[in-house]
């Protein structure tokens, strides 16, 4: 995973309204984030798999960030 991909995914998390992220279950949230990232750049299957694993491992952090005022 490239630094650019990491910046894009965290920028995406920070820029979204919290209700969009919180209303989804874990798998739907990961799928939604990957889908949004794919709108910004083309991802190959290996990148999708890496991003899926990365986001799954960081779901708690994503939810903590979303809950912050």
Topology:
Layout: H1 3-15, H2 18-22, H3 26-40, H4 45-57, H5 59-67
Helix pairs in contact: 1-3, 3-4
Descriptive notes:
The chain is an all-alpha fold. Helix content is 80%, strand content 0%. It has five helices and no strands. α1 crosses α3 (26-40) and α3 packs across α4 (45-57). The radius of gyration is 11 Å and the shape is globular.
Summarize, please.
The protein is mainly α and 69 residues long. The protein has helices at 3-15, 18-22, 26-40, 45-57, 59-67.
Strand content: under 5%
For the report, how would you describe the main beta sheet? Answer: none
Helix segment tally: 5
Order of helices and strands: HHHHH
Shape, principal axes of CA atoms: globular
According to DSSP, the number of beta strands is 0
Cα distance spanning the termini: 30 Å
Return the average pLDDT rounded to an integer: 90
Radius of gyration, in angstroms, nearest whole number: 11 Å
Q: Return residue spans where pLDDT drops below 50 for at least 5 consecutive residues.
A: none
Specify the structural class: mainly alpha
Helix content: over 70%
What tags apply to this protein structure?
mainly alpha, 69 residues, globular
